[in-house]
Design a protein that fits this description.
Blueprint: E1 2-3, H1 11-20, E2 28-31, H2 36-45, E3 49-52, H3 57-72
Parallel strand pairs: 1-2, 2-3
Length: 76
């Protein structure tokens, strides 16, 4: 999980750096500042999932389960 609003950094920039280094782990981006452009930008940058705070723990679990299934099926 990676928050868009990290102190001193942009979560999107951290995500872009991870992807530039070919880090293939799925990233769940979270934010309290929902905006369509922000969501689309995060997904384009390589976020696997985008959740808006406050989110339910069930949503986090569902995203993790989805990415674990995809990785075991060779899709993630």
């Amino acid at each position: 999980m990676l928050d868009v609003g990290l102190p001193g950094h942009s979560g999107l920039e951290v995500l872009k750096r991870l992807r530039a280094h070919r880090a293939g782990v799925p990233v769940i981006m979270v934010t309290g500042q929902y905006g369509r452009q922000l969501r689309e930008g995060a997904l384009r940058a390589g976020a696997a999932t985008f959740l808006t705070k406050p989110f339910r723990i069930a949503d986090v679990r569902a995203a993790i389960d989805q990415h674990l299934r995809a990785s075991t099926e060779g899709k993630g």
